[in-house]
Amino acid sequence: MAEPLFDQLQQLQQEFRGHPPVHKWHPDLCGDMDLVIRRDGRWIHEGTEICRQPLVRLFASILKREGDDYFLVTPVEKMRIRVEDVPFIASQVARGEEGGRQRLLFTTNTGDIVPLDSGRGWQLKPFGRPPQPIPYIEVRDGLQARVSREVFYQLVDWAEERAGQSGGQLWLKSDGEQFLLGSY
Fold it and tell me: What kind and span of H or E run contains 53?
């Protein structure tokens, strides 16, 4: 039986119309914008945090990654911005069943709802000091979200323990697939 939060998120995901087609927009670079997305998920413009979430969501909807660079793009403009780690943080997770299979849905700090499935980039990358392997999930078109500490602890609670080559491992099940959460 699916949890109420999972059902609500699944409905929102199905109703969501998508983001502007930034992958089709290729304007010339206009320059650099004094905007940085901090590793804690805050958006800072000219030294001041953008506190209006609708504005952050708008900027997030026109965000594009090319190689290691990030840009805000429209059909006629392209401005480079700075991202300290990745642009999004997976700040919530819900678990439920769909078609008899367990499914995990992540919600980012900008409101994107991201299913964990085989088409999604899931990887463990070093983060923090000292660096520890932390999960990252692809939100869309090469844009990633880092899993927050709170979500990570929830995932640990849901994970299945298995013996690995050099110790124990934690695995998640979602959409009929297995995803490594970490080793110990």
Answer: helix 53-61
